[in-house]
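INTERNAL AUDIT FORM
Audit reference: QA-55
Scope: verify that the stored structure record matches its stored sequence.
Auditor: D.O.
Record contents follow.
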Amino acid sequence: MTVDTIREGEWVLLYYDERKSYVVRVERGKVFHTTHGSIDLSTLIGLPYGATVETNVGEKLIVSRTRFVDRLEGLQRVTQVIYPKDLGYILLEAGVGPGSRVVEAGTGTGFLAATLAWYVRPSGRVYTYEVRRDFYEIALKNFEVLGVLPYITPRNKDIRDGIEENDLDAVVLDMPSPWEVVEEAASKLLNGGTLIAFVPTTSQVERTLHSLKKTGLRMVEVTEIMMRKYQPKPGELRPQSLGVTHTGYIISSRKL
């Protein structure tokens, strides 16, 4: 049996207990500081996944593999990001998979574009639009760190000035005024393609729905994803006191 060892540049999960864990990229010569002490990340290189390591104050951490969603948590954020509960539904509703061609706007920190790119690999492509240069440059770094840049065509451009791509499987709009784009976006979709908008307020939903009526898109739905976690203790099972309730509305429609 081959032992899978940690290599430089990989993302790892450092598990302390059920309440606290850390996601970090292994870099030679870098020291990672936690509330439980610090650890020289160079010492992780070559260790098998599942190994237990100690911080400089003797606290123990288990080193584990990461999921893609774990790695997102380790990225630099400059904007409000879409929560995993909404990302998952958007992916399914958009019908995104290997080989899909998707346009996304606006890029922001890059969470949505990176997630789309992860699922269109290896033969698909995501074209993401961001009007602000500072957000665009941070997103590029995040894409590179996550390893999804080869599947993304980033554009430092206002999508309201025109969508350059045609024959798209999906268009996903995470922007304040999607109603300004939906008509052109609809014209770029293939038959069966999906247009999705994510907005935080009901007034934005109303304006988007009015614009969608002009496009001829069908199967229009508005969905809000509510999530409640529970305290996972036998004999004490109950909802957690804090949680993520409203984050936004997902408006989906299809070209038939």
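Auditor finding: record pair retrieved intact. The chain has six helices and 15 strands.
Action required: none
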